[in-house]
UniProtKB/TrEMBL annotation:
One of its GO terms (molecular function) is oxidoreductase activity, acting on paired donors, with incorporation or reduction of molecular oxygen. Residues 1-25 are annotated as: Disordered. It comes from Streptomyces bingchenggensis (strain BCW-1). This is Cytochrome bc1 complex Rieske iron-sulfur subunit. The chain crosses the membrane at residues 35-55, 75-96, 140-160. InterPro entries: QcrA_N (IPR045603), Rieske_2Fe-2S (IPR017941), Rieske_2Fe-2S_sf (IPR036922), Rieske_Fe-S_prot (IPR014349), Rieske_Fe-S_prot_C (IPR005805). The cytochrome bc1 complex is composed of a cytochrome b (QcrB), the Rieske iron-sulfur protein (QcrA) and a diheme cytochrome c (QcrC) subunit. PROSITE patterns: RIESKE (PS51296). Its cofactor is [2Fe-2S] cluster. Gene3D superfamilies: Rieske [2Fe-2S] iron-sulphur domain (2.102.10.10). Iron-sulfur subunit of the cytochrome bc1 complex, an essential component of the respiratory electron transport chain required for ATP synthesis. The bc1 complex catalyzes the oxidation of menaquinol and the reduction of cytochrome c in the respiratory chain. The bc1 complex operates through a Q-cycle mechanism that couples electron transfer to generation of the proton gradient that drives ATP synthesis.
Length: 329
């Protein structure tokens, strides 16, 4: 009567019901084989993920009902990675529900700071739980779990490849090369020395480039050139003079600070100014930095005149264009 009238009475625990695996070792072994199968499928799916990444080109499109036309690479990566992760989770859940101990344990609440005997009991319970989980006894399930957990991180490592293609030496080279004529960026006509007046600033690009090219913006960001005609006696740097033609010097238009295009020229001082952060370069002294945050001088392009009287490059820039990067040295 007292318990029935007390809404906070301890109802106790229902009688424990044994699972089939608890009383039948054959059923337990079937569950272990099922778990091992799930973990093995996870390993195979991870291998398939890596194989799909290598096998399918980025631009291959396939038809999958009812999704329609989709990327073969994205579909295969999503499917295999999903299977790999799902089967690890399903195997772990099946292990917990069929083989690990499911005996309910009631314990009294205790202060936050555990007493020594409580700590000892926790360690004892942990050891008992580890033993009851079958982790040491169920070697097939345990080893396939280790295999699945070892392989599935490889999927993440493979995805690191999509951070971008390896730069190799692409940052060191531009479209400039020996014999390429200098084309006026605005008129797209080949430049002659007489087209460039003393004190003028002219922008040029390599022969053969067209704005319709799919990689035009990428290439012009490295190859953009500015031409200035100085009096030869005003050129202070010997190499700059040797690489010029009749006072015409050619420097990269790309600022060596953060890659902004330079377009402000001061005739009297022969200085060019980057409009982004005011880095200033002296075009009469090897393009060196005289003000601002830029870290190094503007790269110079060696130029000359071909047999037809047009300005041409004698090669590519001698150093990388634009801001410094980790491969520079």
């Amino acid at each position: 009567m007292e318990a029935a009238g007390n809404p906070f009475a301890d109802p106790g625990l229902p009688p424990h019901e044994h699972r089939q695996q608890d009383i039948d070792e054959r059923a337990a072994r079937r569950s272990e084989r099922t778990i091992a199968l799930l973990f093995t499928v996870s390993m195979l799916a991870t291998v398939a993920f890596i194989a799909s990444y290598v096998a399918f080109p980025v631009d291959r499109i396939i038809y999958v009902f009812p999704l329609g036309h989709i990327s073969a690479l994205n579909f295969s990566l999503g499917l295999t990675l999903g299977i790999a992760l799902f089967t690890i989770g399903a195997g772990a859940v099946h292990w917990a529900r069929t083989l690990m101990s499911d005996v309910e344990v009631a314990d009294e609440r205790h202060p936050i700071e555990a007493a020594p005997e409580v700590k000892a009991k926790v360690l004892e319970d942990f050891a008992a739980g580890a033993a009851e989980s079958g982790f040491g006894r169920r070697k097939l399930a345990r080893n396939t779990l280790f295999g699945a957990l070892t392989l599935v991180p490889l999927a993440g490592l493979v995805l690191l490849r999509d951070l971008g293609p390896l730069p190799q030496d692409k940052l060191r080279h531009t479209k400039w090369g020996k014999g390429k004529r200098l084309m006026n960026y605005n008129t797209m006509l080949a430049l002659r020395p007489e087209d460039i007046a003393v004190g003028s600033l002219t922008f040029a690009m390599p022969e053969g480039m067209k704005e319709s090219d799919h990689d035009f913006q990428t290439q012009i960001a490295k190859a953009a050139l500015m031409l200035v005609r100085l009096q030869p006696e005003n050129i202070k740097d010997k190499r700059e003079l040797d690489w010029s033609h009749d006072g015409i010097v050619a420097f990269s238009k790309i600022c060596t600070h953060v890659g902004c295009p330079i377009n402000l020229y001061e005739q009297q001082t022969h200085h060019v100014l980057c409009p982004c952060h005011q880095s200033t370069f002296d075009l009469s002294d090897g393009g060196r930095v005289i003000f601002g945050p830029a870290g190094h001088a503007l790269p110079q392009l060696r130029i000359g005149v071909n047999k037809d009287g047009y300005l041409e490059a004698k090669g590519d820039f001698a150093e990388p264009v634009g801001p410094a990067f980790w491969e520079r040295g």
